[in-house]
Amino acid sequence: MRNKITPWAWVPTLYFAEGIPYFIVNTISVVMYKNLGMPNGRLAALTSLLYLPWVIKPFWSPFVDIIGTKRRWIIWMQLAMTAAFVALALSVHPTFFTFSLIFFWITAFASATHDIAADGFYMLALDHKRQAVFVGIRSLFYRVSMIFGQGVLVFIAGYLERRLGSVPTAWRITLLITALIFAVLSVWHIFLLPRPAEDAVREDAGTAKEIFRGFGRTFATFFTKPGIWLAMCFLLLFRLPEALSIKMLTPFLLDTAAAGGLALSTEQVGLAYGTIGVAGLVAGGILGGIAAAKWGLRKSLVPMVCCVAIPCLVYVYLAMARPENLWIVSGCILLDQFGYGFGFTAYMLYMIHVSEGEFKTSHYSLCTAFMALSMMIPGLFAGYLQEALGYTGFFILVMACSLLSIPITALAARKVPKNE
After folding, report:
1. Domain count across the chain
2. Under the phi-then-psi rule, with left for phi > 0, alpha for psi from -120 to 50, and beta for the rest, what region is 139?
3. Are residue 187 and residue 219 in the same domain, yes or no?
4. Full residue range of the structural domain in which residue 170 is found
5. 194 contacts 5 by C-beta, under 8 angstroms
6. What span, in angstroms and rounded, lies between the C-alpha atoms of 18 and 157?
7. pTM, to two decimals
8. Same domain, residue pair 82 and 145
9. In the chain, pLDDT over 70 holds for what percent of residues?
10. Of residues 347 and 156, more confidently modeled
11. Residue 154 contacts by C-beta under 8 Å, 6 or more apart in sequence?
């Protein structure tokens, strides 16, 4: 009976639960710390380090694969994140950030581990036909979690800030609401995640030495692929404009006019960036997938990297003009996020291209680690650059850096076979 549970009962909720902690760690942390008064340089550096669990998760993914079951990992990580959200809510303080950062780190490691288990469980619990049927559903609900995390939760926090007049209290309540939602999801999955026969404790897992030897072979074969160093440059530079700007967009939207910002309220940021912007991102991703399927990877790469780079101009305009009309600001964010969503399709397809071969799954995991690294390293310096250059100078620098990705992409495209 347990194995006959319909995928509609758990696929949407599982991937909603996969997205929420990622966006809380990497987006809500920025908004919360900005509202609590953390300087931009420190804010960007500390929150960028939270990408680290996603950078290094390939190193412990083999152990998630062999120790216990994927179902057990999912349940325990969701319970751990529920507890971490409660602890995070209780640790919110306007001048003492250490404890809240510790709980953000715990959430990040639990979330990265949950990603490994959830993606593995999806493949074990569904046959190939149903995997294909539900791949769009899992993607949809991950994007719904993006809107909920970056839009709805930020809007709630802003509303509570305005009504209660206390930033720490508003964020404590918002995080406790998140913990309650996650507790409900955890209980739901305890009862409604199926127990597929394939998701069993492995008896042939081997020793830790054998596991590391196998991982070492996977690692070595990745770095001996033809053209891998050019591919790594592409993976690290394609998202450079996003990596530099993403940690500063929320501070820019929230900062006062005297500080060079747009002086939006937290509610307005939740609407403009977290809702309208995410809608543009989703629409761009859908159309990007259609275009890539029609053009092929080789022909898609350069046009799509231009779609990522050129819309960065909107932030130069916003920093220089500083319009007060929320719809103008939202329209600029919509344009940028649509271009990014459209162009990012090429990046994902290129990672699949690089991963082809004997260890496809493991090599794709390594590509995603480089993707996370490409976001973490520039973010460490973004805040200090903004403090030195001001918002206008910073966004001009971002625009200049975005042009670096175009020649690298052109070189990478020439290495892709003509039939792809």
Report:
1. 2
2. alpha
3. no
4. 1-195
5. yes
6. 21
7. 0.86
8. yes
9. 94
10. 156
11. 27, 28, 31, 266, 267, 269, 270, 273, 274
CA distance 194 to 10: 8
Considering the domain boundaries, does residue 201 fall inside one?
A: no
By CB atoms closer than 10 A (0-12, 13-18, 19+), residue 65 is middle
Alpha helices in 148-276 (DSSP H): 153-164, 167-192, 208-223, 228-237, 240-254, 266-271
Cα(152)–Cα(271) distance, integer angstroms: 8
Reported as a single tens digit per residue, the pLDDT across 161-196 is 999 999 999 999 999 999 999 999 999 999 999 988
- Best CA proximity match to 215, nearest among 63, 111, 69: 63
- Check whether residue 161 and residue 297 sit in a common domain: no
Q: What's 409's domain CATH number?
A: 1.20.1250.20
| Mean pLDDT of all residues belonging to the chain | 87
Mark whether 169 and 232 lie in a shared domain: no
Which among 7, 9, 28, 307 is positioned nearest to 145, based on CA atoms? 28
Task: Count the neighbouring beta carbons within 10 Å of the beta carbon of residue 287.
Answer: 14
Residue type, 170: A
| Mean pLDDT, range 297-315, rounded to an integer | 86
Give tens-digit pLDDT for 228-249.
888 888 888 888 888 888 889 9
* Helical spans, DSSP H, in 226-325: 228-237, 240-254, 266-271, 277-295, 297-309, 313-321
Structure tokens at 63: 């152990």
CA–CA distance from 357 to each of 222, 231, 343, 360 (Å)? Answer: 9, 15, 25, 5
Residue 2 has pLDDT above 70, yes or no: no
Tell me: the pLDDT tens digits for 279-296? 888 888 888 888 888 888
- Across 85-95, b (16+ Cβ under 10 Å) vs e yields bbbbbebbeee
Asked if the structure places residue 95 within a domain, the reply is: yes
